[in-house]
Amino acid sequence: MEAQNLKRLSGFAQNVIPGMGGMDPRQMSMMMRKLGIEVKDIQNVQEIIVRTPDMDYIFDDATVSVMKAQGVETWQISGNPRQVSHEVTLKISDDDVKMVVEQTGCDEKAARQALEASGGDLAEAILALAD
User: Fold this and answer.
1) Beta-sheet strands, E only, within the chain
2) Which of 63, 69, 90, 121 could be cross-linked to 37 through a Cys-Cys bond (beta carbons 3.0 to 4.6 Å apart)?
3) Is the pTM of this model over 0.85?
């Protein structure tokens, strides 16, 4: 376990401290302790999800390390994420459909199609049907 931590510490330092990649892991560990830098692994990680507005990045089998230096924690995730895209479904309410029908005199099917085409924008749907 100690050898694994030293190896990870050395890898972590390569990313954080340029030019330190060739240093012996034990020397690296001593130097980082002197600088007040602490690195620990998070054990038994089951899943990590990084969520953005468009996509989820899901790490099912990840290695997580936390480096603490000068009161700031830096989390490092290593692994291969799978990407899951967010499907955005537009909900058209019956009230919106009714409003478009009343304003344009079209049938409900045409009103719903216009609302879907306009992304749910009532004014745009009504103007499109009025032409």
Assistant:
1) 38-42, 48-51, 55-59, 63-69, 72-78, 82-85
2) 69
3) no
